[in-house]
Amino acid sequence: MEELIDLVGKAFVDHYYHLFDNDRPALSSLYQPSSMLTFEGQKIQSIEDITAKLNQLPFDQCLHVISTIDSQPSSFTGGIVVFVSGSLQLPGEEHHLWFSQMFHLIPLLEGHFFVQNDIFRLNYG
Amino acid sequence: MEELIDLVGKAFVDHYYHLFDNDRPALSSLYQPSSMLTFEGQKIQSIEDITAKLNQLPFDQCLHVISTIDSQPSSFTGGIVVFVSGSLQLPGEEHHLWFSQMFHLIPLLEGHFFVQNDIFRLNYG
């Protein structure tokens, strides 16, 4: 069971950041009206507002490189909490931005999940 | 409602790290048999094993300094996800260790919560 959780968490993370780096508007498919994003302390809710925030970030191209993925089953039946750390590389920037992000994934039909909780923070220090 | 979530998240975080830094064995009161901790990638479950891990960390004294706390309601009725970043200061160490940690809190009676999900990572880079 632990291995399945880890596989599902990793598959989600790969999918999420692949979309982010290659087809950012398509991230809207991973959220639902109840979804919440806290981005660097800014609270955002709903598919439309979350999608707008992600698409309006002040860079067009980016590359996420994942360092760690930790997944656990959540209390919500079939749900998963996923904790990610990694770096964000922007064009023309010599230094990477390090970040941590957590997702609470809730199951939909047929093995799909949506993001209920999403919290993103750049790491300083 | 957002403000209440933030107050509850902050109160929990203050309580958790106060216990960690001053009475680490008492952290056992915040976990339940179903609780899960992933500590630097190591998966641990149950009050006893989580408590043992925390008490056997290779330092006695420490001081957590919190940088950010982000809280959201979870799908579990009354539950809260809390995302923390900060630094860990150890005696005799000039440099701080930066960390990120997430908690999924589930309500008990009378305004108390227990930690269902706990994921801790040191930040590198």
Write up what this structure looks like.
Two copies of one chain form a homodimer. By secondary structure, the first copy, chain A, is an alpha+beta fold. Chain A has a single domain (2-122), classed as Nuclear Transport Factor 2, Chain: A (Roll). Chain A is built from two helices and six strands. Chain A has helices at residues 2-22, 47-55; strands spanning 31-39, 42-45, 63-73, 80-89, 97-107, 113-122. A six-stranded mixed beta sheet of chain A has the order 2-1-6-5-4-3, with helices on one face. In chain A, a hairpin with a 7-residue loop joins strand 4 (80-89) and strand 5. The longest helix of chain A is centred in the N-terminal third of the chain and has 21 residues, at 2-22. The radius of gyration of chain A is 14 Å and the shape is globular. The interface between A and B is medium-sized, with 31 and 31 residues.
Number of strands of chain A: 6
Strand % of chain A is: 35-45%
- Whole-number total of structural domains of chain A: 1
CATH A-level architecture of chain A: Roll
Oligomer: homodimer
Q: What spatial form of chain A do the alpha-carbon principal axes imply?
A: globular
Q: Largest sheet of chain A, described in full?
A: 6 strands, mixed
Q: What is the gyration radius of chain A calculated from CA atoms? A: 14 Å
Low-confidence parts of chain A, pLDDT < 50 over ≥5 residues? none
How do the helices and strands follow one another from N- to C-terminus of chain A?
HEEHEEEE
- Number of discrete helical segments of chain A: 2
What separation lies between the terminal Cα atoms of chain A? 36 Å
Order of strands in the sheet with most strands of chain A: 2-1-6-5-4-3
Q: What's the CATH C level of chain A? A: Alpha Beta
* Biggest contact: A-B, 31 and 31 residues
The SS-based structural class of chain A is alpha+beta
Helix fraction of chain A?
10-25%
- Provide the CATH topology of chain A: Nuclear Transport Factor 2, Chain: A
Query: What value does the average pLDDT of chain A take?
Result: 94
